[in-house]
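Mods, move this if it's the wrong board.
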Amino acid sequence: MGTGYKGDSSSTTVRHSESDGTIITYREVSSSDGSPAVDINIKKSTDSSGVKSQKIHFVKKKE
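Not the wrong board. Structure tokens:
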């Protein structure tokens, strides 16, 4: 289980820290295109195994 959680009902960003140093951030509105996004930052992780940090955007399909 993670070690930390930051966010509240009025915030559009939620940050969660895992015990290994990984930081997971949910942004309701990203700065790049306005879509919701999840960032997985493993720079401070004790076992990143050479994997890069990831940014995942949830973009709606155009109709």
